Amino acid sequence: MARFQDEDLFQTSTMTFGEHLEELRVCLIRATVGLLVAVLLGFLVAQPVVHLIEQPLRRALGNYYTERSIETFDAWQPRVAGGPSLPYSREEILDAVEGHGMSFELREVHADRLARVLGDSAPMATPATPLPKTTVDDTHGTNDAGVGQASPFDIDALVPLLLWQPLSKDARVSITTLSAQEAFGIYVKAALLVGVVLSSPWIIYQLWTFVAAGLYPHEKRWVRIFLPISVGLFLAGVSLAFFFVFDFVLDYLLQFNEWLGLDPDPRISEWLGFVLILPIGFGLGFQLPLVMLFLERIGIVDVATYASQWRVAVIVIFVVSAVLTPADPYSLLFLAIPLCFLYFGGLGICRWFPRSLEKR
Is a pLDDT exceeding 90 seen at residue 41? Predict the structure, then answer.
């Protein structure tokens, strides 16, 4: 018997409600098995993946402390008028930092005391005002001038000194763990991340298989069309988060630390949790235009509803983006704004390729 377009979706289905639940159970088991196999493969490459995941955080920390050092260099002033200047020019500093990957810390020393340690042959960049030639007794706080009379600390005689080291060896850029077992947890999380990415095509295939089980035969062809597009959108969202969004989010969070006057000391386990959440949230969010087109093709939602309810859709997008991303405004906006464009893109696709009326 011919079927009208507005018939119930499961009216002529040969599957009962219990059979649909059984189909869901089978699809979930298959997806879980695929995920476990991918995670086992992830254990083989987890170590280089951990080093790869560290790179955005190390790069952000390096930029953060380099900028702070240059700001300290620019703001430095001699303690007294006409006092010793910095031993390097700003051009030399920028060349060392940007061209040679060096980092520095600005410190101050007494030049004559440093000469005693290095020897009289050590070259000094700037002269310094010598301190009174007194011998301090560190135990009793006495000197040759008189018993019980402490030697004064001449703060105006301090001269600037820059301590150099490769940025990769800078302790401030290192990523720490706080317990012995934390490294193993990091290794497992890295394997899980690899497993999710590798098994995503299989998991998406199982989800679409369950959806196809409840469709009419002429509607199942859309599943075969949407499946590769769905996988591509998921991987595009993951790639956008890892290769583009991470740098902006980290720069914002570190600038917030600077605004509060706090020095960041990140832990790799916390950063890895962030890495797990954000790309998966982006990958799921990028399914929006495909879901819109699929619902329009099977007749659940029409184009007019998409067009009239766009304000509600934008609000829902921002709420869902807040759930799928960590608690910072940058990651929320980087997901919500593309999703808004994808929503209107999905609306345009539904309009440009209208669903043809079903024939009897």
Answer: yes
